[in-house]
Design brief:
Layout lengths: L4 H54 L1
Pfam families: TatA_B_E
Keywords: Cell membrane, Membrane, Protein transport, Translocation, Transmembrane, Transmembrane helix, Transport
Membrane topology: Single-pass membrane protein
Amino acid sequence: MGLSFWHLLIVILVVVLVFGTKRLPNVMEDLAKGIKSFKKGLKDEDETKTLAQDKKDRE
């Protein structure tokens, strides 16, 4: 019971009405930057945990 074509169409229509066609590219760009930053933060956290575990294993 996922999203059908009509659900997606209504969501897109509401987004366009709320943000307008001129602001929509800026909103999408900001969203993409936020997602990239979030993924980078998760990756950095994993690397930090791995380094800490390696250091602990050496001791």
